[in-house]
Write a structure and sequence with these properties.
Structural class: alpha+beta
Number of strands: 11
Shape: elongated
Helix content: 40-55%
Number of helices: 29
CATH topology of the largest domain: Transferase(Phosphotransferase), domain 1
Strand order of the largest sheet: 1-2-3-4-6-5
CATH class of the largest domain: Mainly Alpha
Largest sheet: 6 strands, antiparallel
Amino acid sequence: MQFLKSTVMGLGSAFTMGSVGGLPYTLDMNEQKSNDALVDFLLLKGKSKNDGSGVSVFKSKVPSNALTQNALRRIKTLRHPNVLAYIDGVDVPNNGHVFIVTEEVTPLTTYLEDIRREYGSNSDDEKLLVTWGLKSILSALKFLNNDVKLIHGRLNPQSIFVTKGGEWKLGGFELTSEPNHSALFVQNDSTVDPRFKAPECTRREWASVFSAPVYALDMYALACVIIFIYYPHFSSPNDVSHVPSNLSTMVKRSTDMSPTRRINPDQALQNSVFNLHFLQQMAFLDELAIKGPEEKIEFYKDLCATIESLPKHSALFKVLPALKSVVDFGIATGTGGKAGNYKLDPSESHMLPAMVKIGSQLPPEEFKEQVLPTLVKLFGCNDRAVRLQLLQMMESFAVHFDAKLVNSSVIFDNICTGFHDTSAILREYTVKSMLHIADKLSDSNLNTKLMKFFAKLQTDPEPAIRTNTTICLGKIAPHLNASTRGKVLLPAFCRALKDSFPHARLAGLRTLVACDEYFTYQDVACVIIPAISPLMLDISPSVRDETMTCMAEYIKKIQEEARQMKIREAEEEQKSKDSAANEPAQPSKSITSSHPSPPLSSSSWNEAPSYSKPSVSAFSAAAVDDFNDDGDAWDDDLDDLASPKKEPEPIQSSVPAVSLSWSNATPAKTTPVVPKKSDDDFFGNWDAPSSSRTGSGSLSLSQAGVPTSSFSNSKTSGPATEPKKSLQERRMESKAKRDTLGAMKLQSKPKGGQNWDWDM
């Protein structure tokens, strides 16, 4: 039976090698820290089986005894921010070990080596962190000695531990007892390092120990710890030459040979060295839950302004978790990203800039793990102050978003609620935030939903919102698809050109130039130049200057395109000639005239393209039609540029037909018909026929027995006609007709470029 019992106990010990005495934690036996430094315990690294969080596990080196049991009992009952935080523990029965599970910590000696390696020995950051740590230990002694009336009994560097955030915690309570003869520090004083033992303990004068203040023993030991920090190889408390001057006075008073003259921890905390701004911030952070809203707002603003001066470890592992806990405790019940589920205190919105600013110091993967979940929760908050802070800081953390998260209802849908918010500043920052997530938006969200919001915002009553909408649209244009760019950009920018706000017009001009790669030359010539032309006389000097610059650039581009078009046309014409020369000759069709057709010069582009012989009556009708214009008040010759003129129908007349032929009798120089540049050139000289109508070498009228100058006689024969009007009457009639139709055309055109329909 005894054999069976020993076998079961052996198997039980084997199965618990990697466990913590049956507690829900696992040990990493390879991660052992300073095993030799601690007297009674091994410091091991562990993890919680529930959430995987890191912990520190103190495992007794020997089976359970009075010292290890006392350490477990004391740490369970001592609760203070500067005392090592107890999580779980067990005293394994049947000669087992003692396990104490605490927050994840590092021994003081290891921590000092790390910060000196990172920040440098005697650096400002090292002094700051050490000063903060000493204040924490003094606060723990004040609690232990003055409030609980206990003596630690073995205060040395091995009983001080440091968290990842740089907080110093008091531990090692194996000898902690009340001041009496049965105290463990009396019975086990041989386990105390002589360098940190008070002289009365060395002399074993326990009566003077019990009659002295409770703090006397521990303050002497703390003074020796301060000397050790600055000079690890010290041999006596008189080696204070390496201690900073602002701490040397406290060290000397704490190491006084008379226990009654030693300084109280409460008095030591009044030292000016502990009045640093950084220490005040850390103290406020510890009491954040009991502070008022106004105090919190002031603290958050100050913290955000001084983040760069904080030691990195303290900012990442002390300040950041504290700020995250504010959000976790402030969020009301509700899950997911539904708006309205979360509610924070109004003062907490000022905390977000500091949290994001600190989180930006983390590597990308750690930021996604530690900060991003908290930010995603905040997007579901319906508090305007929180939403505004998130939009303002979008640039800082949007790079950590992936496309799936951005297009989810948690992010995009909650952001879009700001487009139609009644607060103007919220609408404005919602527009600006799109710049940072546009590249991750899906096709439907970007090219459909977002464009609808932007179209509405271009008519927003706030000028700044209209301006920023145009600027934002120009900046996200590369992310739009080609179809959306063709439908949206040009109408939106041209609408901005008609805005009453000068900066909005200026934004329209600049975005047009910035996005000119998406516009064709036809867009420039037919839409953009007419749209920006009125702005050359804008009331704003900056708009005028920008318009002149834009117009010059566009004209230069159009001129270059026209030159390229001419080159292409010449190349095509040359190709057609080359292809015609390579083809076999084909019989040409006959024309009406028996004479060879002369070449068509640039000066004769108003002549009919056909050289058939018209009748005199037709020629007369053409002459009369000069005054029966088509109602557009423009010279009929301009119409020939668009399409060739139809040959007029012959008019019945009693005058015999005359032949239209080329005069070859006298080789006269062809004079090109050049219209006069004066305003009255349209009417011509009514008293004497213009030479342009009967050019001296161009056309001639010839028929035997019929005078060539009797155009008026051609109308005398035939039916009776109305009496011929005088020259003045005909001028007035033509002018009236032109003015009326011209006014109608001007009314149909936009005035000053402000009525063009560029609406989306």
